[in-house]
Fold this protein.
Amino acid sequence: MKDVIERGRKFAMFPATMASYDENERKIMEIRKEILILLINSIKTGIEDGSINKKIQIIEMAILIKSMTETNLNMPPDLVKTLEIRGINNKQFFLDIDSLINTLFN
């Protein structure tokens, strides 16, 4: 497992420097980095076992999933209301997003 994590770290090649950030910002960036590494490793595993299309751009898909997740968890109230008006609750929205991501992977 340690090898898989290290391969993910090397693959991600984070260009951002942490030299100018305070301690809290460094911690946040480190957590974001670890999340991205987990996503990258998960996608790589899926490609290896055939459950994810090998044509997927790994880093792009990892960033897309991370961005979508963060945005969905912090969705502005006007967008939540727009979905509610159309009869789409939070659970249904996440199920629909999951279906969309699965479509992108295959």
